């Protein structure tokens, strides 16, 4: 496809909004299709309506994903990462396949052609998730190695150290609010009402003005004098992250924390888009090919029991001795709710697996008397909740925020001193981050969903994941599922994400012109 044709294809979906679905809509539509599956026309009459919806909706979701990757609201230039380039190419081909090469499903023949397209997209989705996971690892390695193609100069540690040495400190404090050092790239409230980013280090002094004042130039519409953030317009509002409100939790300086939080927000959005698109495709393929829908009325306790069992098997296989006991406590064992079974399984599996590892590592000298890990399930009018409690030593407050970072990878402590792998090695070591894989085949750590992805799965239909940790003791993970079948998919759209992104202080090629 030519560049112009691709840009025209992107333009067709750039301004459209995705249709937000509820668990009730997934469940009701799925049950209806299953009932009609064995009808005289093979379910064509029933599936034609849902297929028509998918034919209109999937290009919007995939198109939004492509544009999000091209616009890249993260301050890091992810378009220089080979895996993200390949991911954009794959999504572009998926969009072209749906929008240009698959006719609307209006007849039995075109409906069957559309179903074949869904099967192709389903098989590709796992490869795309692996590319996304490995792209995150490549990005993490690039940041650690200060790759100048990807990391802007004001986010490199050498620049941070220089700011600290020349300014005598990374931050100063007002009476009520904390502000980054004025010599650092900082956000300010522009007259337009939007947050802007300026880097004083890139300003150049020009010719003197008649009034004797110097003329300053910089990238973008930056005022001639550094502006302090307006009252109440601090980094915490800019990034929408609680960690920015506490200077103790800043990583090196507030600018890097802003960059981390903006990157996290972008990948939260990207994973949510992938999750919703994948659910739509796989739900309909499962109905047609396997005779079951993905959104079901489930008994959470049964799924929790299986997840704990499988996580324990992996722990035993990794360490070579019996895993700590996982005690399941459920005052209301017969509770049911509407949810996606393998979503709940993957979340609980990851939480129990983390608790097992922490417990064994913290108590490795007392194999015969590991503390019990507790998995508690409770149910109320609004939520079904789980608490996974361990005595694995806990996490320092300064490290809690890093748990939710997509740029942190879990490695064997024995490998911590190993040099960075070569490009070929890195590209071959594709991560199994997709939650669709058989979890029991995963290693104990370093692969799997990871807590950022687990939290996105929980939040997708109105739930959440929280961690409370006490250093020296242990960690409690709280997983909440909304019992409301009217909980909708996330509401953050692409345009809101792009408008709230942190502009970089270094010029870089913009894809906006290609979409104009």
* Count of helix runs: 15
Q: How far apart, in Å, are the first and last alpha carbons? A: 18 Å
Element-level helix/strand string? HHHHHHEEEEEEHHEHEEHEEHHHEEHH
Average per-residue pLDDT, rounded, comes to 75
Please give the share of residues in helix: 40-55%
Could you say which structural class the secondary elements and strand pairing correspond to?
alpha+beta
Uncertain stretches: 167-191, 199-252, 410-448, 503-516
Going across the biggest sheet, name each strand in turn: 8-10-11-13-12
Radius of gyration: 25 Å
Strand content bin: 5-15%
Largest sheet: 5 strands, mixed
CA-based shape: globular
Counted beta strands: 13
State the assembly state of the protein chains.
single chain
Structure, explained:
The chain has 516 residues and is an alpha+beta fold. Helices cover 46% and strands 12% of the residues. The strands form five sheets. A five-stranded mixed beta sheet has the order 8-10-11-13-12, covered by helices on one side. A hairpin with a 3-residue loop joins β12 and β13 (474-482). α2 packs antiparallel against α3, α3 runs antiparallel to α4 and α3 packs antiparallel against α8 (254-290). The longest helix has 37 residues, at 108-144. It is globular.
